Amino acid sequence: MLHGKIDLNLFLILVAVYQERSITAAGKKLHLSQPAVSHALSRLRVKYQDPLFVRHGRKMLPTARCQTIMPRVLSSVSELESTLHNIGDFDVHQYQREMKFGFRDILESLFFPELATDLLTNTPNITVNSRQVSRIDMEFALESQELDIVIDVLSPTSADIHHTLICDEHFSLICRKDHPILSDLTLANYIKANHALVSFKDSAVNTVDMALAKHGVARSFALKCEHYFAATSVISRCDMLLTMPNAYARLLKQQMPVEIVPLPFEVPVLPVHMYWHKQAVHDPLNSWMRTKLLNIAKRVIPLPHIASNPLS
């Protein structure tokens, strides 16, 4: 039974800190002061007998206990919020619509095999149109309804854009089978090797190279391109190394003779968020699709930090 003296608003603050990874950002999102958010967290820490979040640089990272409880917290908050909207009679089969996504090719490869198959089998009235969108143009594309949903790394947006964490992207080392580094995986040998780099025109600062800079070292690149598939094809035939998102690396390993191993140094996770415009909050089809994408993410990106269902 829920204790009568528990303030349910504390869970809204917990969700905001979990999504924003920042007490300050959570306060701005909820229109609360930083001390108010800190005080709420202190009360929850007493109740759970756990710090819930630990500071890592400028971010507040969830503890193991926090990661364990958050799926249920997020789901419960979403269920409560759904009671405010008249969506009980929603029937997806009543809609004939093309859903427009802003996905990069790596995300298309991860999400679309399951999504497209499911739609074709169960809801052929819903079709998909996907294209890449720069982070600069993302907000306008959502506002103008050129796109319904965007999934990309965490980026600053206005209050008109809603978003939720869909996963934390972890990085791994990928190389050809029998690569010499597999028998002696050290930071020194990693730096000695030639590397392939996959980057996009509007990419943010490279988190891998920032992590290396903390060790006072840098990689040398023999290849720079825009597609992981092409880079993986190259490194499967030579001694170049490729550092890439773990989920997509596992997918490529099914198609090419490569090995995936942990990096010999720590790289911060890269938060990946799903974005939609405030005008789509109560669009039942958009909400249905957001839920579907979150559920697919749990299956195709089985990583420790998967968001549950905070979709409004």
TrEMBL record:
**Pfam families annotated for this entry?**
HTH_1, LysR_substrate
Q: Mind telling me which PANTHER family this protein's record contains?
A: HTH-TYPE TRANSCRIPTIONAL REGULATOR LEUO-RELATED, TRANSCRIPTIONAL REGULATORY PROTEIN
What name appears for this protein in its UniProt entry? Transcriptional regulator, LysR family protein
Domain of life of the organism in this record? Answer: Bacteria
User: Where's the HTH lysR-type domain?
Assistant: 6-63
GO terms of molecular function: DNA binding; DNA-binding transcription factor activity
Provide this UniProt record's keywords sorted from A to Z: DNA-binding, Transcription, Transcription regulation
Q: Does the keyword Acetylation apply?
A: no
Q: Give the family from UniProt.
A: Belongs to the LysR transcriptional regulatory family.
Q: Which PROSITE patterns does the record match to this protein?
A: HTH_LYSR (PS50931)
